Amino acid sequence: MLMHRWDPLTAEIICSSSALGTPPQTQVFKVSSGSHSRNDVTDTDEKCYVFTSLKLHHAIVGTNLNVQLLLYTRENADCAGNLNLENSTAVKYLNVSRKTIFITHGYRPTGSPPVWISEIVHKLLSIQDFNIIFVDWNRGATTLLYHHAAAKTRDVANILKTLVDKMLSDGATLDSIYMLGVSLGAHISGLVGKMYNGQIGRITGLDPAGPLFTGKPPEERLHYGDAQFVDVIHSDIDGLGYRESLGHIDFYPNGGTDQPGCPETILGGSEYFKCDHQRSVFLYISSLNQTCQIDTFPCADYREYRMGKCTDCSSFSPLSCPMLGFYADKWKDYLVARNPPVTKAFFDTAPESPFCIYHYYLDFVTWNSQTRRGYITIKLESTDGQVTESKLDQDPAVFEQYNEVSLLAKFDKDFATVSKVFVTFTTGSVIGPKYKLRVLTMKLRPITNRSRPVLCRYDFVLLENIEMEFRPIPCQNTNL
C-alpha cells in the first residue's frame, strides 16, 4: 500500500509503502524553486548517491517498492543528489526554471543497475543544463516475477506526480516536463502524463513493455494523448516490447525485430533475451552524439520501406524525413496535426554505434527483350580506397524492357565522393543457364544527403554472378 502527503511546515513530500507482514518504509522528498545557494544548506554533508544495486537473491525473495530520485545537473554531473533525503543538499541544484527530464527504467530481473545511466546523463547534459531526475525504483522492479514489478507502475507514477506537483507550485511549467521511460518506465511516464490531462511537454517511450500491457485500454498504458508530444522507439516487438503504435510517431528500427549485432540464438546467453529490448536505449543515446543523423521514413509497413516506396518526405518540408531520438520533437507540429495523429516510421541500422545507415536509390532502365528477375549487389569505393557494400534486400526485382526499376540501397559508411562502383546481378539460381542484364541507364541517387550529385552509368551488360567495376559520372539529365 502506498501513501504520500505534502508537509508544508518542512517543505517535504513524505511517502510510505508497506507490504503485508512487513514494517512500513518511509521516504522524504525535498523540493526547491532552485533559488538556494551552496551556503543555504549547511546541515547535511555533501555526498554522492548511486543507483540501487541489488543481487539475484533480492530478485528471488522480491523487493518492496522504494523509489530513489537521483538528481543530476551540470553542477553535479558526476555526483548525484538524492531528493528523497530529509535535509538533502540536492535541493540547491534543482532549478525549476530549467527543463526537467525524468528518466525511468523498467523491469530489473537480476537487480543490477542499467549499464547506460552515466552515458545518457552526460550526453544529455552536454546538450543543455537540464534537471535530470533518474527515477530509481530498483527496489520494486527487481523480482523474478515480472507481474509483481508491473503491478507497481501506478505507485511509482503517484510518487512522481507528488514531486511534479511541488515543482509546479514552485514555478515549473508543464511544458518543461519531459518523461523518458524505458520498458515499464514508458508506461509509468504515460500514467504520469494522464494525471495532467496530457499537458506535460513530452514523453519518449523506449521499447515500452508489451507483456501485461498489450491489448489494454489507453487508461492503463502509454498513449499519444498523455503529453503534448509522444515519440516511441519499438525494438523488440516480437519479445519484450509493445507491437502497436502508442505515440504521435512510432519508430521501428529494422522493422522492430532482430536488431543487427544482437545474438540470434540462445547460445548468446542473457544478451539473447535483452539485446533487442535494450537497443532502443542505445539508439536514443546515439541520437545525442550528433556524429551522424538517423533518418527514418514514414511508411505503412516495413516491407514497403524496404521496397523503396517511402522516401518522399516532402510533406515535412522544409524539414527532412523525421529524425530518431532526442531531436524528434522538431517534427512535432507536423505530426500532431495529422488525423489521426499517428505515424509509423521505419529504417534500418548498422550493428554497432552510432548505428547510422546511408540510403541511396539505385535506378535501372534495362532493354532485355525478355523479362528478367533477380537481385543486385552494389559496392561503393571512396577516393581513399574504403569500400562499403549493400545487398539490396527486397524481393527479387523485375526488370522489364524500358521500365525503370528503383531499388533501395543501404550502406553503413558515408562517402562524400564515390570513385568506383561495383555491381553484381544474380537470379539466385544454382542450376540452369546464366543470364545477362542489359542496362540502358543506371542511376545512383543519394537520399540521406540529397545535395550530393546523382551519379550515372550508361549502356553496359551485367553477366550473372560476375562483378562489374566502373567509374560513375555525373548524370547528363537527372530526370531520365
UniProtKB/TrEMBL annotation:
Its main location: membrane. Keywords: Calcium, Cell membrane, Disulfide bond, Glycoprotein, Hydrolase, Lipid degradation, Lipid metabolism, Membrane, Metal-binding, Secreted, Signal. GO terms for molecular function: carboxylic ester hydrolase activity; heparin binding; metal ion binding; phospholipase activity. GO terms for biological process: lipid catabolic process; phosphatidic acid biosynthetic process. It is found in: Cell membrane; Secreted. It catalyses: 1-hexadecanoyl-2-(9Z-octadecenoyl)-sn-glycero-3-phosphate + H2O = 2-(9Z-octadecenoyl)-sn-glycero-3-phosphate + hexadecanoate + H(+). Coiled coil: none annotated. Ca(2+) binds at residues 221, 226. GO terms for cellular component: extracellular space; plasma membrane. PANTHER family: LIPASE (PTHR11610), LIPASE MEMBER H (PTHR11610:SF12). This is Lipase H. It comes from Leptobrachium leishanense.
